[in-house]
Amino acid sequence: MSEDSRYEAVCSRDARFDGQFFFGVTTTGIYCRPSCPATTPRRKNVRFFPTSAAAQGAGFRACRRCRPDAVPGSAEWNARADSVGRAMRMIGDGVVDREGVSGLAARLGYSARQVQRQLTAELGAGPVALARAQRAHTARILLRTTDLRASEIAFAAGFSSVRQFNDTLRAIYAATPTELRAARPEKPSRPGPAEAADGAPGASGGALPGASGMVPRGSGGVPRGSGGAAGVPLRLAYRGPYDTAQVFDYLARRALAGVEEMVGAPGARTYRRTLRLPHACAVVEVDERPGDGWLECRLRLTELRDLTTAIQRIRRLFDLDADPYAVAERLGADAALAPLVAARPGLRSPGTADPTELAVRAVLGQQVSVAAGRVLGDALVAAYGEPLARPDGGLTRLFPRAEDLAGAPLTELGMPEGRRATLRTLATALADGAVRLDAGAERDRAEKELLGLRGIGPWTAGYIRMRALGDPDVLLESDVAVRAGARAAGAHLEDSESWRPWRSYAMHHLWNAARPPRTG
C-alpha cells in the first residue's frame, strides 16, 4: 500500500484500515488511526507508521479522540509464518515481559541482535519498544478499571520500576497515572467505532494480534488486590462485521462441563470458561450481544500480571483480529462460495485459549461426531481436571495439564486403547517440549512433528494447526462435513488454491453450508 493510498484512507476515514497502519501529525505531535474523526491534516504534515510503537518511538502521543491503541490487531501477523510474524504473536502473548528479549530470540532461533534488526527494519520498532507499548496499555486499563495503587499496577503491567512506569505513561499518553485514573467515566457510555473505549493490551495498539477495548463501569472500580467479583471489564474490539451467532454456536456445541459453559438464550448468551495462565488461573466471560465494534468481556484474574496474556488468548479464541473484508473479497470471487460469504458476513475461524487443551481435544474428536467428542472431553475433565479452589457457577475445573495425562491410564474414557495410547503419546510430546504449540511455534515444523506421532494423521494435525496455531489457510479436504458442504454449495475442493490464504474461513463456510444463519 503506497503512502498516497494511505492518505486517501485517512481522508475518507476508512475504518477498514484501522490497525493496518497509523499516522502522525507533525504539527500537533499526535498519532491517530485512519478513521479518526478529527479534521484531516494536510498531506505534508502526515507521517505513516506500521505500528503504534513506531509512532511512539518517533515522539508522537496517542490521540485522545480516536484512541489508536483501541483498534483490533492486524490480521497480517496471524497469516504470516515468518520470524517477524512469529515474534509479533509471542510479544503479544507476553514472552518479552516474562523471558526478556533473549527469551524471545531463543524461541525464534536467532540472536537478540538479529531479532532487533528484523523488527526495526519492518515495523519501525524493536521488541523492547513493542513490549513497552503493551505494558503502558495494560497499565492504563488497570488504572481505569481498578482501585489498585499505582505502584501495584506498575509491576502488574510488567514495568521494572515505578519511575519507568511514570515516565512511559507521560511519554505515550501525555498524562500522569493520577490524571489517567481521574479521566475514568462515571457511567458507561456507547462510543462509536472511531471513539471506542480504551484498548486492551496489544504491544503495538493494533500492530500486534490483539489490541482490544476496555469499558470502565462506574467509579468504584475493582477491590484493591483482587480481580473483584465482577472482574476487570473489557471491550474486545474487532474489525468489520462479526458473526456472533456462528462463533457462539460453534463454542456451545463443544463446551466441556466444568471448564466451559454457555448461559442465556441465543442472541444474548454468555460464554464462560476457566483459563490456565502463566502465573495463575482465571475465569473469563464474553457476551454474545455485540457493542458497536466490540464484544463485552469480564476477566477475573488470580494474578493481575496475567491480564495481557489472558486477553491475547481470548482474542485468538474468538478470532477478533481477522480481516473480514480481505476474506470476503478473496472467497467471494469464487462463484460457489460467493452465496455462502454473502449469507454469513463476518464469519470467523475460532482459535483456542489453550493450545495444549485443543490438541488433546482434537485426538478425542478423531473419527467421532462433535457430540461424541464432547462426551469424551467431559469424562477427561471429570477424571483428570484440576479442581478450582473456589468453583464459579458451572465452572469447577481447569483442563488437565499435558504432564497429568502423559502417564495416565485413561480407562475412564470410552474409546479404544489405541486412541488412549495416542493421547498419552501426544501429552508426553507436549509435556517434554518435543512438540511446541505456543504462540510463536513454527507451523510447518509443528505439523511435521505431530504427524510423526503414532496415531495422529493429516486431519488431526491440520485441525490443530488451524485452531491451536491460528493458521488462516487450512483446508481439511478429507473431512466428511467439508466434502458434504462442498457438494451442497457446488464448490470444487480441487479449486481451493484460489481461496488462499483464507482457506480456514472457506472451510467454516462449507461446514455451515447446511446451517442457515439465525434470524431474529
From TrEMBL:
Protein name: DNA-3-methyladenine glycosylase II
Compositional bias (Low complexity): 192-201
Top-level taxonomy: Bacteria, Bacillati, Actinomycetota, Actinomycetes, Kitasatosporales
Nucleotide-binding in keyword set: no
InterPro entries found in the cross-reference section: Ada-like_dom_sf, Ada_DNA_repair_Zn-bd, AlkA_N, AlkA_N_sf, Alkylbase_DNA_Glycosylase/TA, DNA_glycosylase, HhH-GPD_domain, HhH_base_excis_C
Record EC number: 3.2.2.21
Domain HTH araC/xylS-type per the UniProt entry, residue ranges: 85-183
Region ranges (Disordered): 180-226
Species of provenance: Streptomyces hygroscopicus
Record field: catalytic activity: Hydrolysis of alkylated DNA, releasing 3-methyladenine, 3-methylguanine, 7-methylguanine and 7-methyladenine
Record keywords, A-Z: Activator, DNA damage, DNA repair, Methyltransferase, Transcription, Transcription regulation, Transferase
Cofactors: Zn(2+)
